[in-house]
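Field log, afternoon session.

UNIT: design team B
ACTIVITY: writing a sequence onto a fixed backbone
BACKBONE:
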């Protein structure tokens, strides 16, 4: 399995659109891995995770052919993860698609409220695109992968889910955006044992102590890692990765955060990072 991080920032991006704070100024100056666009990932160039406005830039920068993508998991409907307007680009004339092309978006009912109006009409008629509504703990198939939707602790109105994805051989956990997992998730993972080869955790706050529910920082990432190890869902070969950063976190600059994360057994994502799982 080839897992690629395309965008690795929270809503504002790093540097943020309108900001000259220390992190943004340094990141703008340094470029490279210090610059982070809005959240998106892709597996085997076939299954997308999230569909932000930065999708267009990600496709150009990474040489991705979206015609090869047949599924897209949406974590929730915050704008840094879902920009429904670009679904219109699938319409005849905006695109010239090969016969039989079909893209399936998957997400919660709240996500469907944003996506379905875009699909109904021309796209539905052409059979180009569909929306599959999934519920927490539902196991479903998309693009040849078996996916389990897990409930995230994040803004309830955004219909938040995070995803366990396996190709039958390798298994990854992509946990964005979420707080430390809820009791029902830990119960589910304990009752339904599995082993993750890769785990990507929400690290919005980096080293800033958490004062609200909805995201995590390095401290909470370490707690999730230890709990996964404890219940047998991970072992010493599991690749743990911190991802989804905000300029408001502490030590967010890539160069500052890498040694701190490494000391806790984590890699740090960057835009374009490829992981052979
Ligand atoms: Zn986000
Ligand atoms: Zn800033
Ligand atoms: Zn969010």
């Amino acid at each position: 399995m080839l897992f690629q991080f395309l965008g690795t920032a929270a809503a504002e991006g790093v540097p943020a659109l309108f900001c000259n704070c220390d992190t943004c100024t340094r990141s703008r100056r340094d470029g490279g891995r210090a610059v982070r666009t809005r959240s998106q990932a892709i597996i085997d160039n076939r299954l997308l995770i999230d569909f932000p406005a930065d999708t267009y830039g990600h496709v150009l920068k990474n040489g991705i052919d979206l015609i090869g993508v047949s599924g897209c998991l949406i974590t929730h409907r915050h704008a840094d993860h879902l920009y429904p307007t670009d679904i219109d680009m699938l319409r005849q004339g905006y695109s010239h698609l090969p016969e039989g092309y079909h893209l399936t978006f998957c997400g919660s009912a709240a996500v469907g409220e944003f996506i379905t109006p875009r699909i109904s009409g021309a796209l539905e008629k052409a059979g180009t695109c569909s929306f599959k509504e999934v519920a927490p703990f539902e196991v479903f198939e998309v693009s040849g992968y078996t996916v389990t939707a897990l409930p995230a602790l994040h803004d309830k109105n955004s219909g938040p889910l995070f995803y366990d994805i396996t190709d039958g051989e390798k298994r990854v956990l992509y946990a964005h955006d979420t707080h430390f997992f809820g009791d029902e998730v830990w119960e589910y993972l304990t009752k339904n044992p599995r082993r993750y080869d890769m785990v990507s955790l929400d690290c919005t706050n980096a080293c800033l102590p958490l004062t609200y529910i909805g995201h995590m920082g390095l401290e909470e990432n370490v707690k999730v890692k230890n709990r996964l190890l404890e219940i047998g869902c991970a072992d010493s070969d599991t690749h743990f990765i911190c991802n989804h950063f905000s300029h408001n976190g502490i030590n967010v600059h890539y160069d500052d955060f890498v040694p701190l994360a490494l000391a806790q057994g984590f890699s740090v994502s960057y835009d374009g990072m490829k992981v052979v799982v």
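LOG NOTE: The chain has a mean pLDDT of 96.
NEXT ACTIVITY: expression trials, pending approval
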